Amino acid sequence: MAEDMFQWHWFIEWGTPNSAHMYGIEKILYHGRSKYQDIMVAIVKDLGKALILDGKTQSAIVDEFVYHESLVHPAMILHGKPEKVLILGGGEGATAREVLRFKSVKRVVMVDIDEEVVKVSKEYLPEWHRGAFDDPRFELIIMDGLKYVEEANEKFDVIIADLADPLEAGPAYKLYTKEYYEKLKKLLNPGGVFVTQATSPTITTFTHAVIFNTIKSVFKYASIYHVYVRSFDGVWGFVIASDTKDPRSLTPEVIDKYLAENVEGENRFYEGIIHLSMFAVPKYLRKAIESIKDIATLEKPVFMPA
Amino acid sequence: MAEDMFQWHWFIEWGTPNSAHMYGIEKILYHGRSKYQDIMVAIVKDLGKALILDGKTQSAIVDEFVYHESLVHPAMILHGKPEKVLILGGGEGATAREVLRFKSVKRVVMVDIDEEVVKVSKEYLPEWHRGAFDDPRFELIIMDGLKYVEEANEKFDVIIADLADPLEAGPAYKLYTKEYYEKLKKLLNPGGVFVTQATSPTITTFTHAVIFNTIKSVFKYASIYHVYVRSFDGVWGFVIASDTKDPRSLTPEVIDKYLAENVEGENRFYEGIIHLSMFAVPKYLRKAIESIKDIATLEKPVFMPA
Amino acid sequence: MAEDMFQWHWFIEWGTPNSAHMYGIEKILYHGRSKYQDIMVAIVKDLGKALILDGKTQSAIVDEFVYHESLVHPAMILHGKPEKVLILGGGEGATAREVLRFKSVKRVVMVDIDEEVVKVSKEYLPEWHRGAFDDPRFELIIMDGLKYVEEANEKFDVIIADLADPLEAGPAYKLYTKEYYEKLKKLLNPGGVFVTQATSPTITTFTHAVIFNTIKSVFKYASIYHVYVRSFDGVWGFVIASDTKDPRSLTPEVIDKYLAENVEGENRFYEGIIHLSMFAVPKYLRKAIESIKDIATLEKPVFMPA
Amino acid sequence: MAEDMFQWHWFIEWGTPNSAHMYGIEKILYHGRSKYQDIMVAIVKDLGKALILDGKTQSAIVDEFVYHESLVHPAMILHGKPEKVLILGGGEGATAREVLRFKSVKRVVMVDIDEEVVKVSKEYLPEWHRGAFDDPRFELIIMDGLKYVEEANEKFDVIIADLADPLEAGPAYKLYTKEYYEKLKKLLNPGGVFVTQATSPTITTFTHAVIFNTIKSVFKYASIYHVYVRSFDGVWGFVIASDTKDPRSLTPEVIDKYLAENVEGENRFYEGIIHLSMFAVPKYLRKAIESIKDIATLEKPVFMPA
């Protein structure tokens, strides 16, 4: 068998113990282990360069803009004039990159627990951060997001949670509880908006629904939205929340005008019509999500299924 | 190692030679080979019962309604009062099932080349056809879709192509050429609408774009729409076309009213707001598709990439 | 991608949680579940027809004769004139087939717990049993091997244990304890010989060594021997034991003469020179095995590693 | 799913297009590409540190001594007093290491085409070469083995071919032809011995048999021998040849005495009794090999099957 015919170096990303996506690895650019996790940067076939933490694709060059525009833009536009933005997690620097494109922004604080991920991203992922780490408006704090929220004495217009999934094994699950969201809310200025990634609505429907329910119990307005992210092997879920603004009130026309006037450069994915489609959660999924009533607390947290 | 800890029976669906989705097989209900293809009905873990032809998932119970509602409903509603409908392919019977839900429908002709697939579907996929094969309005013709179109002397209001992908190895690629679409169009009544599955816009962008371009060269109005189908491991593409009606003109309100008044039973996926989101093709994909100018002809057909 | 280029139906046989052998499945001939286990007969690519119980290859047509000749012949020849033979397990009927080739044999009792395996083997594995189940000298008893040994009031010249591995999940581990071997020994006539499969010496060295140590603690002579079995993905281990005869005393000349005179038909694998090589356990493995001193008892049994 | 439960980084070594061995990768120590091939040094689960060229395991720490002792010792002992030894290939340095253990050896020339493999081995595989590259008796020549044999004006007592398999894609197949073996033979001193790896006798029986036939057509004595090498996923084949000495004439006693007196340190695998077992090729394989009559020439070479 000719050695170039069959792919022999593979990344297998497990969705459940009984299904997985296999990708050929073209080249490993970095592989190491921090205090918190296994860190790999690789050229993955069909996805291109990708950051993989503990065997989970964080983002891939083929569609990192889909994920990062979807995470950042709705919350920023809903706010209307965000000046101070807090990012929890977001090690690659692409969330910060999108935030810094908004002309009104004066200060971005990014709190990430893992200095190694940030160092690796700085060196290996320039297409992600594109200089965001060096922007004078940007400050990096290496700290546990739990602790930061306890100690912070600063307020923000938008808070963006770009965190790892709430695995039972790790500490991240505490960042998905009612108690945590209540503390986070205290860091928001009046008119503030909160947004978080919220796991896969199709693969981990329960976890997704509980995150939504928990946030809904803390904020006046909370909405789910869904985006297909190829490198995440499916549709991805987000929750956006505010005490003053309903994200469903944004129209395509308002969004497209805002983007044209208030954001540097051009989006590749997010725009008015996409905003509508992100919030159009299919009926069978809506029903599945609505049938789940649980809320996550420190005493009874939600985990990713084993 | 305990024998129940590790899944040992697998279905690996290849997207490209360098990526694939692996699913545990719980049970094989049927496995055989017709004159045309390998046919398997299996309980696939995470997807449930599925029909797999030549190693490609045709549909799975977890979301066959997403695919079949998306294929059938937009074309039927765009027509407005479809009485006679032609289905090319569609062996499972679920496309016919959806068509027969429209109260105006008086006659459905389904032309499938592979009698075995239909027999297996009748026996093993009752959740798909739900009696469609026995509806007095339904007629099955076992024949090559190429030949049928040459010989047919009947006209239809809606034609639905639910065909295998245009593989280089098989004969199906001829059903994706300008010549074929021109013949198909002659079978349409005035005001008629044509719709076809059109491969994956993200994995096989070129093939998808060429199918669109080819249809656009034959009909006055032609539009792409995209739907996430989990069991197809991504977003799936469709093309809808007509000489008299622009599918983009349909509003959510019109669609929801039409569904309520003119369709038996309730949809699980397709509705007004979903229609909008299906037609909201992301900018980066629109650009990729628009950059491709090829048209498929018998002399220069389009194939799935090897 | 042409559908015939990439294998999509797979059997993955796990050796450990971190290594496995993958085989394409050409066709499934039978798949069901008995009271005890999952039973599959399939045409496996590169191995041919195979019996797979709970995801473990029991034997494949490409080399079942290697395993079955190696299991049966040394013990039979060491005995010299076996008339009555007990087989524990051996559902496929190939162990019985080999035993029945010895002209001196007058009675073979096969005790298997799983009637389904025997029924499936009768129908789907004629190349294995070749009529052994119908030989007038052969008797099948469907019973737990544990119970049989308690209740048997018959003695044998040779006892052959062709049993499942001692998994922690199943009951088979009790058949690998000192207590069980002591009871078995009481069923042997004077001059009797016992032989058993003994798991992989390279993958599960501890289990293999403990089986050897346990048998050695019960019989005067006990020896390990190893045979490469491709369909088991490596070298396989056996233990042969007797109170009166040392298997290492057999010479190639004696073996070849015995086979020529006392056995119907011709072997494909086992012969004098192979006997020598089977007992030539490599030094590094001998040392690894000798370093393990444990013995399996009902109170402290040995299991396959998880 | 806990991220530490499922292995996600894999090396899949294909034996045929329909079967493969999958191994978890624990850590990649080096990954690069030379002018000739992809080079990886990794900690592979269950095998330990391994050198992988173009996706094929060259040797793994768990049993590299099995392969290298088997390749080197029979030829050296058959010669009786080897002073000058030529190694073709052998980049890891372990073949040289074994040769240098023979007290009679005064000069070792190793000819390898790929300087990168040697550099990587020097740095990452000290357990393999153990200083062999620095032994004053050792000379490394970076050159194509084809060219070296044309130009060499030195003669040797033993020639050892530790080369890549004869893939159709690469140039190595020329090193497995009658023409090449004839040239090699001219580099042997009277009483000289030649040995080569000869692919898998079970997976690539045809290739293995043709290598044997070709060498047999050039030398008076030629024998096949087989060794189970776990990291090669099966039995491995070798061919040893000489015009004056029959390797089958060596007895275990002679071998063990020779090793004790003439070789530094102690073997872990090869010894007298193992020598016998290596040459005991099973009957069914002997028959399969004998049924193949082809010989490889430059005009009609032998390749590994596609």
List keywords for this structure.
306 residues, Spermidine Synthase, Chain: A, domain 2, alpha/beta, Rossmann fold, 2 domains
Number of domains of chain A: 2
Question: N-to-C terminal Cα separation of chain A, in Å?
Answer: 39 Å
For this structure, what is the CATH homologous superfamily of the largest domain in chain A? Answer: Vaccinia Virus protein VP39
Structural class of chain A: alpha/beta
Total count of strands of chain A: 12
Just name the CATH architecture of the largest domain in chain A. Answer: 3-Layer(aba) Sandwich
Widest sheet, order of strands of chain A: 8-7-6-9-10-12-11
Level of helix content of chain A? Answer: 25-40%
Radius of gyration of chain A, whole Å: 19 Å
Unreliable residue stretches of chain A: none
| SSE topology string of chain A | EEEEEHEHEHHEHEHEHEEHHH
SSE topology:
The structure is a homotetramer of 306-residue chains.
Chain A: E1 9-16, E2 19-33, E3 38-44, E4 48-53, E5 56-60, H1 64-79, E6 84-89, H2 94-100, E7 107-112, H3 115-124, H4 126-129, E8 138-142, H5 145-151, E9 156-162, H6 178-186, E10 188-197, H7 205-216, E11 221-229, E12 234-242, H8 252-262, H9 272-279, H10 283-290
Parallel strand pairs in A: 6-7, 6-9, 7-8, 9-10
Antiparallel strand pairs in A: 1-2, 2-3, 3-4, 4-5, 10-12, 11-12
Helix pairs in contact in A: 1-2, 7-10, 8-9
What does this structure look like?
The structure is a homotetramer of 306-residue chains. Chain A is of the alpha/beta class. Chain A folds into 2 domains: 10-60, Roll (Spermidine Synthase, Chain: A, domain 2), CATH 2.30.140.10; 64-290, Vaccinia Virus protein VP39 (Rossmann fold). Chain A contains 10 helices and 12 strands. In chain A, the strands form 2 sheets. Chain A has a 7-stranded mixed β-sheet with strand order 8-7-6-9-10-12-11, with helices on both faces. In chain A, strand 11 and strand 12 form a beta hairpin. The longest helix of chain A has 16 residues, at 64-79. Chain A is globular and about 55 Å long. Strand 1 (9-16) of chain B pairs antiparallel with strand 1 of chain C, so a sheet runs across the interface.
